[in-house]
């Protein structure tokens, strides 16, 4: 009987989740010209233009600056007194792959069985109807790097824009990176050791196990490199074919690692195979910032609003790490992986970094242009510059400040997208119920 109750509860939870937001549609492509006038434009490259105008034609930015003439027969949005920003980018996320983290397995499709899965493609599983997407748009997040999880090699991630009917519409850059999860070199204490009668010396040697796993991974890449060097094959190997882009530089290897030892192994991958490596996580990256710079390795910092990774670290070390990387010349971006808030606090992570050593514009770059550079889409987005897509966010206040940030308009490729979402609808529903309208 308990089994049936759990199943029914899970079904009802999914039904409630899928009921809201049915009237929020992707916006049709906008053709013609659009002028956003009189706003304070944060270009995204460190430049700020007061009382400036952005001219958009067929989804592309054609002019940015002050004293831009506005024709009489065009669509105009007056941003006077408002702040204008590039669309924010969530660089590594399970958005659209994980809907309800606990209890409803049918809403999740972010992990495959097996250890070596480079041929798994997150884009094919991406759900554009996710109810979480609307709440991200309402916080200025317009693009995301959708990423698989699990195993040693999880598969490929793709960049998507967050206003689409299906994954084909959403695709911004497909299979731009392969994701590798570096094994841990630290033995975690077993909380149940005393209860189970396990002595401390019987704990597995984490370093030995990690090195064995690293050797397996290196062996895979050695075999893949040899396979791809052959002009023809008797039998096609899908796993080796899936990493071809790593060796011809069409893809990057995103190594998920927090410990210094893990990142040192990632540096070995650069030296041994000539791969473009990006560290994802990087909580201890501040300790080897100069070494990362020397090896041209970028870093995506996963979570700032967290405790430090080591007991003897400064309690505010996660807040200071972005400034340390910036001062060392390391290309870095900020991320948000917090399941409970579902990634909507990305701009406020940047705001914290701005209070601990970065300037406001440097912190903005860490969630716009820097992310675009690391994801390989900076030719199309990340800043408000001529020739790029019109991915634009307009806020009543400072987008990095939780108290004053209020997003009033978002444009994706020039389309005025809806900022409605499930949370807003529920807010209005219960205002109506209790006569608070």
UniProtKB/TrEMBL annotation:
Highest taxon above the source species: Bacteria
Keyword Hydrolase: yes
Pfam families in alphabetical order: Amidohydro_1 (PF01979)
Presence of the UniProt keyword Thylakoid in the record: no
SUPFAM superfamilies hit by this protein: Composite domain of metallo-dependent hydrolases, Metallo-dependent hydrolases
Gene Ontology MF annotations: hydrolase activity, acting on carbon-nitrogen (but not peptide) bonds
UniProtKB keywords: Hydrolase, Signal
Signal peptide from the UniProt entry: 1-20
Record protein name field: Amidohydrolase
InterPro entries, A to Z: Amidohydro-rel, Metal-dep_hydrolase_composite, Metal_Hydrolase, Metallo-dep_Hydrolase
Domain Amidohydrolase-related: 353-402
